[in-house]
Write a structure and sequence with these properties.
Helix content is 48%, strand content 13%. The protein has 241 residues and is an alpha/beta fold. The longest helix is centred in the C-terminal third of the chain and has 21 residues. The radius of gyration is 18 Å and the shape is globular. GO terms for molecular function: 3'-5' exonuclease activity; DNA binding; DNA-directed DNA polymerase activity.
């Protein structure tokens, strides 16, 4: 594999123009225009962050990608999400969206995710997959582990597709774990083991979202035991200096 600096140069001067050429036909789709208008008028729900943590909806999600650097053309190839209301249920609604990439996916990524070239070829393009996720998560607070990575990837993909930015209310379960369990490694696997949460097959977007939702429920109960009762208060705790 090329060093990162050479990958960047390769992407800028060779792959990026090809990528833009390949997505050009999609920009004329009706679904593209609908998504563009929806994002242009999208406004984050600040009021939801002021409600009691046990009275709002959460969409816990995970992305499977072709790499860690969307800035050099790595893509989202699947989204898994679980929507819950408060702490009543960790599996109220589920979404598993496979996304057709523009660039070829290497064998290592296919083995890791369990996806096949045929399934990717027959799946929806990013604009339709993201639209499904947007509809699924509407009116909820997004949760990811770590949210910084997943939100960065989503924003980079939207920018690459010449779409407006997306700024929902977000909670980071990784930061919650750092705060609540300072002496434990904060990756998903050590936390699942520590809390006795059943481990499912990893690097499957929906499985990872389900496990993260179970982790999030544990973290939420501990958070409320600390006297924090709104997402706004929790954000202040997690990001205080």
């Amino acid at each position: 594999m090329l060093p990162v600096d050479l990958q960047i140069l390769k992407y800028i001067f060779f792959e990026k123009p090809i990528y833009h050429y390949k997505i050009k036909p999609y920009l004329k789709w009706k679904s593209y225009g609908n998504l563009q208008r929806q994002l242009q008028t999208y406004e984050p729900d600040f009021e939801i962050a002021k409600k009691n943590l046990n009275e709002v909806d959460y969409t816990i999600f995970d992305l499977e990608t072709t790499g860690f650097l969307p800035e050099i053309g790595h893509e989202i190839i699947s989204i898994g999400a679980v929507r819950i209301h408060g702490l009543d249920s960790c599996y109220r609604k589920k979404l598993h969206q496979v996304i057709r990439p523009i660039r070829p996916v290497n064998k290592q990524t296919l083995r890791l995710t369990g996806l096949t070239k045929e399934r990717l070829k027959n799946s929806s393009p990013f604009i339709e997959g993201f639209q499904n996720f947007l509809d699924f998560s509407e009116g909820s607070i997004l949760v990811a582990h770590p949210a910084k990575f997943d939100m960065r990837f989503l924003q980079a993909m939207l920018k690459r597709w010449k779409l407006p930015a997306y700024h929902p209310q977000v909670l980071d379960s990784h930061l919650m774990a750092q705060w609540l369990f300072p002496d434990i490694k904060h990756q998903l696997d050590p936390l699942l083991k520590h809390l006795g949460i059943e481990k499912r097959e990893r690097h499957h977007a929906l499985n990872d979202a389900i496990m993260t939702s179970e982790l999030f429920c544990h973290l939420m109960r501990l958070t409320m035991n600390e006297g924090i009762n709104t997402a706004e208060d929790l954000q202040n705790q997690l990001y205080k200096k």
